[in-house]
């Protein structure tokens, strides 16, 4: 079971609490987690990744075990602490402006 923490705006859209738990089939990668998340919560499609390119949206970041995974390959295996459920995968909304 993989734990995923969502930012407030995505929690509101999906009508869930701070954290959701997902059962991932096959290898636990960022792509697999996002595919499963979007399948379970279809209203999130296009909010985390672009509909066509499946690239991360510019103002969202992915963190796990105090590491920024935002620029890692989406097919890279997630850390063991995340796949075991000990640590969550955190999707964080970034803020820009001046």
Topology:
Layout (H helix, E strand, L loop, with lengths): L1 E4 L2 H7 L4 E4 L7 H11 L19 E5 L2 E2 L11 H4 L5 E5 L5
Describe the structure.
- The protein has a single domain, classed as Ubiquitin-like (UB roll), CATH 3.10.20.30.
- About 20% of the residues lie in helices and about 20% in strands.
- The chain contains three helices and five strands, in the order βαβαββαβ.
- It has helices at about 10-15, 30-40, 80-85; strands at about 1-5, 20, 60-65, 65-70, 90-95.
- About 20% of the residues are buried.
Estimate the mean pLDDT confidence.
Answer: 94
Remind me, CATH topology?
Ubiquitin-like (UB roll)
- What is the makeup of the main sheet? 5 strands, mixed
Query: What is the number of helical segments per DSSP (H or I, 4+ residues)?
Result: 3
Question: What's a concise summary of this model?
Answer:
This protein has 3 helices and 5 strands, in the order βαβαββαβ. With 98 residues, it is an alpha+beta fold. A 5-stranded mixed β-sheet has the order 2-1-5-3-4.
Task: List the keywords.
98 residues, alpha+beta, Ubiquitin-like (UB roll), 5-stranded mixed beta sheet, 5 strands
